[in-house]
Design brief:
Number of strands: 8
Strand order of the largest sheet: 1-4-3-2-5-6-8-7
Strand content: 15-25%
Organism: Psychroserpens algicola
Family: Belongs to the class I-like SAM-binding methyltransferase superfamily. TrmB family.
Catalytic activity: guanosine(46) in tRNA + S-adenosyl-L-methionine = N(7)-methylguanosine(46) in tRNA + S-adenosyl-L-homocysteine
Shape: globular
EC number: 2.1.1.33
Pfam family, one: Methyltransf_4
Largest sheet: 8 strands, mixed
């Protein structure tokens, strides 16, 4: 994407009513004004709140919002020029239960209050295969602790990935730390019984993976 195009998207994001872009220092050094107030201030209802972490273009956030109008969805990514597409689609189609937050995932517990979130989706994260990149894996122990803080006691996390490494790493970590694996599938499009929201929504890259016959894996779990 050209730099001019990026700048145009950044500018347009600033005009979107469904995009929130707090500065890092505002999150870390002070109590963020929307922390604990997302449903009240943004969605104006008390419906379940669902996050997509590392939402990329925002396709999954938007499609989940369309499929589940009785829930509120927030796509989170640091790359605003990417989720511009999802934010624009939501506005153009009057999807009022989808919003986007531009921030780093490691600041998620600064943006949301304890027990504020009902569910988390992590879709096709970078598996960070090299050992020295372990701290950046979005299902490592440190990230799970952050998620547990903001999730309700019965809240769940969904991991959908094309990376067998990420799938295996996460399963091993979950079992090793005593978390509750509710469902695990090594190939959601080949095995019966896969949850409908997992197979009926596909990202742009996911459709490419499927054309290459790459298996898509899925885990649903609770953090203890």
């Amino acid at each position: 994407m050209g730099s001019k195009n990026k700048l145009k998207r950044f500018k347009e994001n600033e005009t979107f009513s469904n995009v929130y872009q707090p500065k890092r220092e505002d999150l870390v050094n002070s109590e963020y004004e929307l922390k604990g107030q997302w449903n009240t201030s943004v969605f104006k209802n008390n419906n379940p709140l669902v996050l997509e972490l590392g939402c990329g273009r925002g396709e999954y956030t938007v499609e989940l919002a369309k499929k589940f109008p009785q829930k509120n969805f927030i796509g989170i990514d640091i790359k605003g020029a990417r989720f511009w597409r999802g934010a624009k689609t939501a506005i153009e189609n009057d999807i009022s239960n989808a919003a986007f937050l531009r921030t780093q995932i490691e600041l998620v517990d600064y943006a949301f209050a304890q027990n504020e979130v009902d569910e988390i989706w992590i879709t096709f994260p970078d598996p960070q295969i090299k050992y020295k990149r372990t701290k950046h894996r979005m299902t490592n122990s440190d990230f799970l602790k952050r998620y547990k803080t903001i999730l309700k006691p019965d809240g769940v996390v969904n991991l959908k990935t094309d990376s067998e490494f990420m799938h295996g790493y996460t399963l091993g970590l979950l079992h090793g730390e005593g978390h509750e694996v509710l469902y695990a599938n090594h190939n959601v499009y080949k095995q019966e019984g896969s949850p409908e929201e997992v197979t009926s929504i596909q990202t742009y890259y996911e459709s490419q993976y499927l054309e290459q016959n790459k298996p898509i894996t899925y885990i649903r779990f609770k953090i203890k």
